[in-house]
Amino acid sequence: MSLALESLTSFPPITLVDLDSTWTMARRYDTKFILERRVMDQFLDQTTTSFAALEIAGKRAFTYRTTYFDTPDLLLYRDHAQGRSRRVKVRMRQYIESNRARLEVKAKLGNGQTQKTLFEDRSELGPSEIALIDQAIEQAYPTARYSDVASQLIQSAITTFVRSTLINQNSVERITFDSSLLLDSNGKQVQLLPELVLVEVKSIHQISDTVRVLRQLGFHPTSFSKYCAGIESTRDFRPRIHCANLLSRKLCSVN
Known about the structure:
- This protein is of the alpha+beta class.
- Helices cover 24% and strands 37% of the residues.
């Protein structure tokens, strides 16, 4: 499996155990960029930040498969598209190489932070998982709007991609690089253009060190959502969070 970026080979390795021990935040700020690979490689080649790259069994790139769940009328998608500051996302994530799976409930809080609740070793949506989802949503967002949403959830989209991860050893900051992104929904498939990489900076700070530098270099954050892009690219659905021009410039259909 090829790395999203060649420059990732230049950083010292960090193990998954060490990575997890330095990353215990339940709440964080997420900032995304969609950049050309060559531009990101150039940035990392020139950086003076003390990064380390996640390495497992000699590999620095890993395949993820994420199944998203929503109500039949796409309530969770619509809440995102309508700009609700407090909303949730429910997904099952598989780590292909390590044969691991977990359930995730991702809540967007009113202050812009993201709170993620994880349930390890969960690979299907059954009664026990529905109870866990209800519990996680109640803790993050106690409102009648989502009071019975877990029991209504059905599979709505699947994404697959290859991810590499850097950690800033001098700050609480993690950066993920997603390439070979494939979005599968409503019987259709689209993919991120091969020359692009989705960069996501996760930090306790609203504007972290890397986000500040990328902005200073003229790169603008994006509100790109894998899930919402999958819905919008495969359905004539309103409202939308991505303009048609952005999707046509970043994604292409799979024959």
